[in-house]
Write a structure and sequence with these properties.
Blueprint lengths: L1 E3 L2 E3 L3 H6 L6 H5 L7 H9 L2 E8 L2 E8 L6 E4 L2 E5 L8 H8 L2 E7 L6 E11 L2 H4 L12 E12 L2 H6 L16 H8 L6 H14 L3
Antiparallel strand pairs: 1-2, 3-4, 3-7, 5-6, 6-9, 7-8, 8-9
Helix pairs in contact: 7-8
């Protein structure tokens, strides 16, 4: 380990392991190579997951959400995820084009345990795949098809510490400025903060799908 201003930097696996107790046996054994009934059940009830991707430029995590079951299990090792409208930066999709490795963290409101799925992704636009989702006549522009490498349930410690589904740490939205006002402070555009906020609210109302 190397000392630097502000702390000690752990530089290799041996130094890292010195700081922690060995993983308990069930933690080492829980990794699955396919989706069992519990994984399928969890995914079917989840309206939200975080998608981790990466490229030569770095790593990225993006939120993905819709009605419970919007992520479809095609078979024991394959998931399909609709790409509904966003900001068209295409950060995740661009990363996947150059590096197909992805990580997914599924959450269910009210449940403190989570489900982690890691694998490789392809971006597909087959008509039969797009047709799996239809919201008021609208279909996604593309579908992420993920081949599962590993899947496992994650214990509740992080969400218990965060009290994520409880009222303790819930923040009244008025404690933060409106999104459009924060964005106006961060970027140089001619639009006013009020115009940005109005545009954002319109997209929420009319462009979710």
């Amino acid at each position: 380990m190397e000392a630097r201003p502000g702390g000690i930097v752990v530089k290799n696996q041996a130094e890292l392991r010195e700081r922690y107790a060995p993983a308990i046996e069930r933690a080492k054994l829980k990794t699955l190579r396919r989706l069992d009934r519990h994984c399928r059940n969890f995914i079917a009830r989840s309206p939200f997951f975080c998608l981790g991707t990466g490229s030569a430029e770095g790593a990225d995590v993006t939120p993905r959400g819709d009605r419970p079951g919007f992520v479809q299990v095609l078979d024991d090792v394959t998931l399909a995820v609709p790409d509904w409208p966003g900001n068209n930066r295409l950060d995740s999709l661009s990363n996947i084009v150059s590096n197909p490795q992805v990580g997914m963290l599924f959450l269910i409101p009210g449940v403190d345990e989570t489900l982690r799925v890691n694998g490789t992704a392809e971006i597909k636009a087959n008509p039969e795949l797009l047709a799996l989702w239809n919201v008021d006549g609208k279909q996604p522009k593309s579908v992420l098809v993920i081949t599962v490498r590993e899947a496992y349930l994650h214990c509740a410690k992080a969400l218990i510490r965060a009290r994520l589904w409880r009222e303790d740490y819930k923040v009244n939205r008025s404690e933060l400025p409106p999104y459009g006002h924060m964005l106006k402070d961060q970027i140089e555009v001619c639009d006013t903060a009020e115009e940005i906020q109005a545009s954002v609210l319109e997209s929420y109302a009319k462009k979710l799908y």
